[in-house]
Each structure stands twice: as C-alpha cells, then as structure tokens.
Amino acid sequence: MATEAEVVEALREVEDPELGMDIVELGLFYSAEVEGPKVKVQYTLTSMGCPAGAMIQEDIERVVRQIPGVEDVESELTFDPPWTPERMSDDAKFILGFG
Q1: Percent of the chain, pLDDT > 90?
Q2: Is residue 30 part of a domain?
Q3: Could you give the CA distance from residue 78 to residue 20 in angstroms, rounded to a whole number?
Q4: Read out DSSP for 71-83?
Q5: Environment class of residue 19 by beta-carbon count within 10 Å: exposed (0-12), middle (13-18) or buried (19+)?
Q6: DSSP readout, 6-60?
Q7: In Å, how far from its chain's centre is CA 49?
Q8: Residue 21, CB-side half-sphere exposure with 13 Å CA sphere
Q9: 62 is in which domain, residue-wise?
Q10: Range 67-92 average pLDDT
Q11: Is there a domain that residue 32 lies in?
Q12: How much is the pTM?
C-alpha cells in the first residue's frame, strides 16, 4: 500500500510549466488520502484561469498511478483555501523573488 510520503515524493515530478517548479514546492498540493489501493489528491492552481490546469491534473494522476500498489487515483481541484505565495516553500519564494 502506498504511503502519503510516497505520494508527496511522486508529486515532486509534477511541474507547473509556467513557473518551472513542482507543485509541492509551489504550495499547490494540499492533501493526499490513501485508502488501500485508492489515492485521492487535493490540489489547487495559482489562478482559476490557469492554462496549465488540465496538464497538471493529468500529471498528478500519472505519477501517483506509478506508485506500486496504487490502482485508482482521484484528483480534486479546489480553490478553498485559495492559493497565495505564502504557501510556497522558502526555496520557491527565493527563486521566484517572493519575500
């Protein structure tokens, strides 16, 4: 069975193409629920009109499905709470010039 840590590590492969960083560092990943072979990932985008939204969703499902023991992946896009730059890691803030 997959662990939440394995899911988070896999999600580091999902990059926001506009910002050139992964969704974990950018603070776009909110949560992962692992129930046996099923994983539900909750995430957000930097804006509702993000043109990379579909690609990010496909990448989330692809990388999580590659984890041994995962058979089903549900990705849930949410804007509650809305993303803000404060959600980024310190490294991402430095690289992108925030703070």
Answers
A1: 90
A2: yes
A3: 21
A4: -EEEEEE--SSPP
A5: middle
A6: HHHHHHTT-EETTTTEETTTTT-EEEEEEETTEEEEEE--SSTT-TTHHHHHHHH
A7: 17
A8: 19
A9: 4-79
A10: 96
A11: yes
A12: 0.94
Q: What CATH number did the domain enclosing 27 receive? A: 3.30.300.130
How many structural domains is the chain composed of? 1
Q: What is the pLDDT of residues 38-79, one digit of tens each?
A: 999 999 999 888 899 999 999 999 999 999 999 999 999 999
Say which residue the tokens 């991402």 belong to: 92
**Mean pLDDT of the residues in the chain:** 95
- Name the amino acid, one letter, at 43: Y
Q: For tokens 């993303």, name the residue.
A: 83
Percent of the chain having pLDDT more than 70? 99
